[in-house]
Amino acid sequence: xxxxxxxxxxxxxxxxxxxxxxxxxxxxxxxxxxxxxxxxxxxxxxxxxxxxxxxxxxxxxxxxxxxxxxxxxxxxxxxxxxxxxxxxxxxxxxxxxxxxxxxxxxxxxxxxxxxxxxxxxxxxxxxxxxxxxxxxxxxxxxxxxxxxxxxxxxxx
Length: 156
Known about the structure:
Elements: H1 2-26, E1 35-36, E2 41-42, E3 48-52, H2 59-73, E4 77-80, E5 88-92, E6 106-109, E7 114-118, H3 121-134, E8 149-150, E9 153-155
Parallel strand pairs: 3-4, 3-5, 5-7
Antiparallel strand pairs: 1-9, 2-8, 6-7, 6-9
């Protein structure tokens, strides 16, 4: 009986440890509700193009993202209203997505670009916060480093 109890405790500890390891890999605060993972990587290009509408309520989000990326990477960042090959797209939903509410967001990283969608500018801001956290910590050194992100991920 005692051996069975010890075996059960060991199994439970390994399950708990596995769960903690999985969460540590994400390392995003606040932790996304869901993360869908696929293969591939996205790397920042020589020039970063951000596509975002020039609405007054978007100015702070755009300025924050532009500042963080240019300071952290040393890569030039350009913001335009319509860029077919944008590196990062910030999109306010024209029709509200009830799943994410006012402050939620969808962050999709593909091998070609990054798309953040939200119902409100606050959601875009939180999506940008998540994006910044996804880059390797070395990006904050000010020296151009491999800034590859796993692609095919959708964060909510």
